Amino acid sequence: MADERFNGTIKYWNSRKGFGFIAPENESEEQKQVFVHIKAFTSREKKPAIGLNVNYIIATDENGRTRAEDVVKADEAVAQKAATKSAIPTVAIALVVISLIVVAVFALK
């Protein structure tokens, strides 16, 4: 099972120290803000900044504290999801075609 992904907005960012906090889109009493470190971002093309919408999973460190991991800009998350969905039918079609070729080769022998 894949980890559940969440959406949120960076509310605080310390560029010098490379960490900040994300306010979850659906804020709950238990989880008002989520810690995020610069190393949790999958892409370093755009530096994190206050107001950036992100998509992430929640992880827990060895001390039981929650943090964001596998963080991507929200628009990148949508693009990744679309690419994954379009790749599955392509792979399935390729497997069917290869199977038909193998069957045809053995049938002609």
What does this protein look like?
There is one protein chain. The chain has one helix at 74-107; strands at 5-14, 19-24, 34-37, 53-60, 66-73. With 109 residues, the chain is an alpha+beta fold. It has a single domain, classed as OB fold (Dihydrolipoamide Acetyltransferase, E2P). A hairpin with a 4-residue loop joins β1 and β2. It is elongated. The mean pLDDT is 83.
- Count of DSSP E strands? 5
Question: If helices are DSSP runs of H or I spanning 4 or more residues, what is the number of helices?
Answer: 1
CATH topology: OB fold (Dihydrolipoamide Acetyltransferase, E2P)
CATH uppermost class: Mainly Beta
The Rg value, from CA coordinates, equals: 21 Å
Main attributes?
109 residues; alpha+beta; OB fold (Dihydrolipoamide Acetyltransferase, E2P); five-stranded antiparallel β-sheet; 1 helix; 5 strands; 31% helix; 33% strand; elongated
